[in-house]
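User: Teach me something about this protein's shape.
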Amino acid sequence: MSILDAHMLEFFSRSPEQTRRIGMRLGSLLTAGDVICLQGDLGAGKTTFTQGLAQGWGSLDSVSSPTFILVNLYRRADGAQLFHLDAYRLDSVPEAEELDLDSMLAEGALIIEWPERLGDLIPKEHLHIRLDHLSEEHRQMNFHAYGKRYDDLLNSIRHAMVGG
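Assistant: First, the predicted structure itself:
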């Protein structure tokens, strides 16, 4: 793991379980209004990471890629909600506007796969995570925080991974 600057973190996962555990650490910190953007090619580990996010957040529901329905909703025992948007099949930003991201963010945290397809609809403040497939088991994960809330999340993740 290397620290690129105070707003960035690079991590190399050596297994799907490790990718899931990093997601669990982040998921345990999520609150309504948080935006997590996951970028990476097909098979890069976005769904595995999201499974960890949802588990750490406390989801009662199992996680699958929402590719064919665009948005999955996960629930927690206390009634909180977590939204999982897969923008892969969106054809345009106007089509994405119909999803009403603001309503989702008012009700829960939002995980966005393929955020580049949403253009300027992504809130300026968010946590962007790029996952790259290095080999069968290994993934490179680059975290970039945009805004104080996300700097705080990144610092919490950094502390959980390396201490100090």
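Now, about its shape. The beta strands are 8-13, 35-39, 71-75, 81-86, 108-113, 126-133, 139-146. The helical segments are 16-27, 46-57, 93-97, 101-107, 148-162. If you'd like, I can walk through any region in more detail.
User: That's plenty for now, thanks!
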